[in-house]
Amino acid sequence: MPVDEWIELPTGGNLYELPGRKGIGIDVETGAMRLCEKGWAVAAFIPPAHTGLYMAAYETAKDAPTLPLFCYTAAGWLNEKIYVPAVRIEQDIRQEAEGYAEEQIETGATNLLAAYPHNRLVKHLMENCCMTYTCPAARNLAIGRWECPVPVSPACNANCIGCISFQPEDETIISTQDRLTFKPTAEEIIEFTVPHLQTAPFPLISFGQGCEGEPLLMWETIREAIIEIRKHTQKGSININTNGSMPKAVKALCEVGLNSIRVSTNSARKNIYTSYYLPNNYAFEDLFESLKTVRSYGGWTSINYFVFPGMTDSIEEYEALRKLIRETDLCMIQWRNFNIDPDWYLGKIGVTDTGESMGVKQMMELIREEFPNVKFGYFNPSMERIKGNFEIDFAH
Ligand code: SF4
After folding, report:
1. Among the four given CATH numbers 3.60.21.10, 3.20.20.70, 3.40.50.970, 3.40.640.10, the one describing domain 97-387
2. How far is the CA of 145 from the centre of ligand 1 (A)?
3. How many A from CA of 277 to the centre of ligand 1?
4. How much is the pTM?
5. Segment 26-60, tens digit of pLDDT
6. Which residue intervals of the chain bear CATH 3.20.20.70?
7. Which atom of ligand 1 lies nearest, measured to the CA of 179?
8. Long-range contacts of 314-320 (CB under 8 A, 24+ apart)
């Protein structure tokens, strides 16, 4: 791994010991690759806004437990510091670990709960997401800034192997948060999102969160909410994070003012996508249709691209991604770390050979060179970035 691909583990990152897994490394004397017999392997969880370039190398014992839904980036240390092969892909500071003051969050949550005592969605967002799951988006809502999460759907039309809001009983791992259990009304959505759009810096609201199923299954309620919200304010961006399964519903939302869409995918290849998402009553091609539909209304489109080093940077995937960008006139790639046990994932989707890989950084450079207008990042951009200067200097 080239030295220039390593950075110090950013604040908010963690180190994990991997039970039942022996580390693999290069012997400093012989230069040969060998197993480390001492202790378990270690990997790093790198914080948002950074994309991991290589996974930790280890050998997994037959009886090793499945790892929980986190990313397992390679890690090393030098001069008492921890380093990871990663890049800062996003300059937006909305989920910087240092940016969260507990007292401010608690006060904000208390005020929101008091302001909307009968609003089930505010109750869910403040009591569960903000104060229990410590979701960065819900904490930003409590502080009254940036992106406001709006989960709406208790159900989903996909069955992702690594779903973060629902894991089947017979799986040994658990979902990182519980799925919403009720269907919010348009009134409950409008009540707290309008003031957020009117008062927050760089305001946007996003339907489709980690604590729900597929928001497009609730498109009629979302449509009603958007119509009402835009009667009160034209400020900010209205975004939907989705699996892109229902292009007709996306069209109906664009007609009333949806500004941007982020379609999640583990791959730009149909077979890899389908064996992971296990879709009900929709097909991979619907993702393309949903992205094209939003572009046809002048909206902003992103893919929430789950990066799995060694597979995402394969030649086949690279070619498929080029095709997706060309055919959908894509605006942005959010290079997200895939939070999943690598062996478990490959086993579940039936992949034994991930193909020849070029390196994630190399792939990013090739895409950037061929598609200079395609933005790279990690978060949904505000209207100020979509319409104005995308490279806003967040540090000042
Ligand atoms: S689309 Fe989202 S909610 Fe649905 S199964 Fe996949 S990860 Fe879970």
Report:
1. 3.20.20.70
2. 26
3. 8
4. 0.96
5. 998 999 999 999 999 999 999 999 999 999 999 99
6. 97-387
7. 3
8. 314/354, 314/355, 314/356, 314/357, 314/358, 315/355, 315/356, 315/357, 315/358, 316/269, 316/355, 317/267, 317/268, 317/269, 317/272, 317/355, 318/358, 318/363, 318/366, 318/367, 320/267, 320/268, 320/269
